[in-house]
Design goal:
It is built from 18 helices and no strands. The protein is mainly alpha-helical and about 400 residues long. Among the domains are: about 35 residues, no CATH class; about 80 residues; about 110 residues, Tetratricopeptide repeat domain (Serine Threonine Protein Phosphatase 5, Tetratricopeptide repeat), CATH 1.25.40.10. α1 packs across α3, α12 runs antiparallel to α13 and α14 runs antiparallel to α15. The longest helix has 22 residues. The radius of gyration is 56 Å and the shape is elongated.
Length: about 400
């Protein structure tokens, strides 16, 4: 039976679960431990007490409750503020009854103020005192006794809102002071780039252990820079190793002298893990230094030691070209071109030139049949080159 899930463990800890699950938990140590863990969590949850709210929390809750009660009161007693609009007939009836009582009640006794139901702007006459009065006080009648006046509705008063209670002083004192606003900083205005030009800045990390190699290269000592960078490359890894190899190539190809080539050879003997790359670098340095004999020897040595390397075809093609052009060694060039074609394959990037120049060297050596075979393969593979001047010249030489 599989182990209990979290749900089953919690169910057994809560006193639930099937008998089969309980039996399994009793005999399985892992499941029993999970059930015990769930039971302990439940006990801790029951024993834990909710935290007491702070004074600020209670004050905020009381303030929110009072505002909610005020809004609820206004919602349930909305008719108190709108009674003139709801009961207009009651107001008109009361006004008409008051006007009728004034008109038909007879003259008012002297010494009493009689006010008729009139607009607010109508004047009201007062009776003079009895000691100085020579005639009865005249009562000013309303201008339109037959037209009842509309009662003036009381102005709408918004419901009273209780003032908001201030937070306790202890809560206000505990609040942190507001952070000061940062001063505005003017954004730098960059000059617009030139149309069609993209500037990319590459920031490379500077490894301290490569500083001696950089100094030697800057002071014009490329051989010393090669040795210093190779000592770091032997123990470094990752980005530092790539930076060290970049310095080695920069020193070997930037100053392709014999001393630098000798330093690369010494590094190849001292660091067998990087021997293949260093031997090919020595071949490249000799070619750039225009030392044809040395370059042919270094490139052929690389091909003999690493015939299956991806750069073997390039080294063979370069060796054959230098042997044919600089050393007039067509016999050696034929063998170099053969290796270039062998390593490159039928559809390699160098097999067209290697095939043509091998046919050229074979014709120079008097092996016309072999040269014609290579040239026929070359033209069959590249029909568009039948009209090339060099192809026509080679065909003419083989006919004679």
């Amino acid at each position: 039976m599989a182990h209990l899930s979290d749900h089953d463990a919690w169910a057994i800890a809560a006193g639930e679960g099937s008998p089969s699950l309980r039996e399994h938990a009793a005999v399985c140590a892992l499941c029993h431990a999970r059930v015990e863990e769930a039971s302990g969590v439940r006990r801790l949850a029951r024993a834990a007490r909710p935290p007491e709210p702070s004074a600020g929390t209670r004050a905020a809750a009381l303030d929110g409750f009072e505002r909610a009660m005020a809004v609820e009161t206004r919602r349930h007693h909305w008719w108190l503020d709108r009674w003139p609009m709801i009961f207009p007939s009651l107001g008109l009836a009361a006004a008409a009854g008051a006007a009728a009582a004034v008109l038909f009640a007879g003259p008012a006794p002297q010494g009493l103020e009689v006010a008729a139901l009139a607009p607010a702007a109508a004047p009201v006459a007062r009776a003079e005192p009895a000691a100085t009065a020579t005639r009865p006080a005249a009562v000013t009648e309303p201008e339109s006794p037959t037209a009842p006046q509309s009662p003036v509705a009381p102005a709408h008063r918004p419901p009273a809102v209780r003032p908001r209670r201030a937070a306790p002083a202890a809560v206000v004192a505990a609040l942190p002071a507001p952070l000061p606003l940062p001063e505005p900083v003017a954004a730098p205005v960059a000059a617009p780039p030139e149309p069609g030009r993209v500037e990319v800045e590459v920031v490379e990390p500077r490894y301290e252990r490569l500083e001696p190699a950089r100094v030697a290269l800057a002071e014009g000592n490329p051989a010393e820079a090669v040795s210093a960078a190779m000592s770091v490359l032997a123990v470094a890894g990752g980005g530092e190793a790539l930076a060290a190899w970049h310095l080695v190539r920069q020193a070997a190809l930037g100053s392709p002298t014999e001393d630098v080539a000798a330093a690369v050879d010494a590094a190849a003997r001292a660091h067998p893990d990087h021997r293949e790359a260093l031997l090919y670098l020595a071949c490249e340095s000799s070619v750039l230094g225009r030392r044809a004999t040395e370059a042919v020897g270094r490139c052929r040595s690389f091909v003999e030691e690493y015939p299956q390397a991806l750069r073997a075809r390039d080294a063979s093609y370069v060796a054959g070209t230098l042997a044919r052009e600089a050393m007039q060694d067509c016999a050696g060039a034929v063998e170099d071109y053969r290796k270039a074609l062998l390593f490159t394959g039928a559809l390699g990037s160098l097999n067209d030139d290697a095939l043509f120049w091998r046919a050229h060297c074979l014709a120079e050596l008097g092996r016309v049949d072999d040269a014609r075979t290579d040239l026929q393969q070359y033209v069959a593979r590249y029909p568009g080159r039948r009209t090339d001047a060099r192809v026509r010249d080679l065909q003419a030489r083989m006919r004679h």
